[in-house]
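Here is the promised in-class demo. Please do not try to memorize the tokens; focus on the logic of going from shape to residues.
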């Protein structure tokens, strides 16, 4: 190398923050399923919770009409449209009994998954700890790590109704814990919250100066009594809540979520968020406001469909000889596998390769889910009936070998 010349830049080197962050499990699995489909397998995918039903027709109509206007295509406010913030405030008041100031306590998001990242980046310094549920949504773990934080698992056990053992946590060193991720109705277990649980979480956050981050996207699915952590007295001082239109309004691909909390928390997260995006397309926000104004008949119509599907999933789980609770909320069924399988991965792969049906192994949600599987309710009754037929056929063939 000549004197004074620079060393070549190493192309493709990734940042240290990506160490230990693998590709999202479903991203990998969908590629495998795509390859199997190219081989003519016609895989029935019962793994991912992506609603297969459309939003209400009036919601789509608003999007169409507003998109045709010439003055709606500019950048939007980082805090979201006042129309959408007001709609979220009315929604929270009507269904959760929570009064929020639309100007200061509500921050629309381009999806609540993004909000998980915003919160972690706003509050976690290198080495700070965050409590994450095991089993739980994998994004909590990856967002904490990407922000430089350290994940501290708290195990959720079936015998404790998948509630955190706060007494056990009290005995651990919490001095570096800044955040606690909680999620009820819980995913993947479908466990509903109780008022007492929410009160205990708020008290725990106050005592240990931990921000309780409640992720609440499933409260309208197969559940007649939606609950918000912010309904607990004093919650706003120690908690924030994420919510979403993905599941409750069949708008997953629209990417509309919200962060609710005290003005101070909203302002803090906005400092990060405003450097990450430039607001949401205004017609999408106005259509989302329409979706939030829908009455009980909307939720009843959606849940009627999910109940029919769930009855078919019960049949499928019975064929697989899994055990499960009939009191689950949300758009999944969580079930314990028979002792004849090493773990949920083994059962999932067997069903995939023998019967061309994909179900999710519980272990992707944490080690506490290793002996479980999860089945999505996002599919037609006919799709579930075909899955049952295939699995029965696959079992019969394996027994005859």
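The designed amino acids, position by position:
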């Amino acid at each position: 190398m000549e004197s004074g010349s620079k060393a070549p830049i190493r192309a493709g080197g990734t940042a240290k923050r990506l160490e230990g962050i693998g590709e999202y499990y479903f991203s990998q699995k969908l590629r495998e399923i795509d390859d199997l489909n190219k081989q003519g397998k016609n895989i029935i995918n019962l793994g991912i919770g992506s609603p297969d039903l459309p939003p209400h027709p009036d919601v789509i109509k608003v999007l169409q009409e507003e998109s045709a206007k010439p003055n709606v295509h500019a950048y939007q406010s980082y805090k979201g449209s006042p129309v959408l913030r007001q709609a979220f405030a009315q929604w929270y008041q009507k269904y959760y009994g929570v009064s929020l100031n639309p100007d200061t306590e509500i921050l629309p998001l381009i999806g609540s998954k993004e909000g998980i990242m915003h919160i972690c980046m706003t509050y976690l310094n290198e080495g700070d700890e965050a409590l994450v549920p095991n089993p739980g949504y994998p994004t909590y773990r990856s967002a904490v790590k990407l922000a430089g934080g350290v994940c501290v698992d708290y195990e959720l056990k079936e015998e404790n109704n998948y509630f955190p053992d706060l007494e056990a946590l009290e005995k651990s060193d919490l001095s570096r814990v800044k955040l606690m991720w909680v999620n009820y109705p819980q995913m993947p277990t479908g466990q509903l919250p109780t008022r007492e649980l929410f009160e205990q979480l708020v008290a725990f956050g106050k005592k240990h100066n931990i921000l309780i981050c409640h992720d609440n996207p499933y409260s309208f699915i197969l559940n007649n009594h939606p609950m918000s952590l912010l309904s607990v007295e004093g919650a706003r001082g120690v908690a924030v809540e994420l919510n979403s239109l993905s599941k409750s309004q069949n708008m997953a691909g629209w990417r509309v979520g919200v962060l609710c909390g005290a003005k101070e928390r909203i302002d803090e997260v906005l400092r990060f968020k405003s450097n990450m995006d430039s607001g949401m397309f205004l017609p999408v926000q106005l259509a989302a406001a329409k979706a939030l104004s829908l009455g009980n008949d909307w939720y009843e119509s959606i849940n009627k469909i999910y109940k029919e599907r769930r009855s078919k999933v019960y049949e499928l789980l019975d064929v697989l000889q899994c055990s499960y609770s009939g009191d689950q909320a949300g758009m999944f069924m969580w079930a314990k596998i028979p002792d004849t399988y090493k773990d949920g991965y083994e059962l999932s792969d067997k069903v995939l390769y023998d019967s061309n049906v994909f179900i999710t192994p519980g272990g992707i949600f944490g080690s506490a889910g290793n002996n479980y599987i999860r089945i999505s309710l996002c599919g037609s009754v006919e799709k579930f009936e075909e899955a049952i037929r295939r699995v029965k056929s696959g079992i019969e063939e394996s027994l005859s070998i």
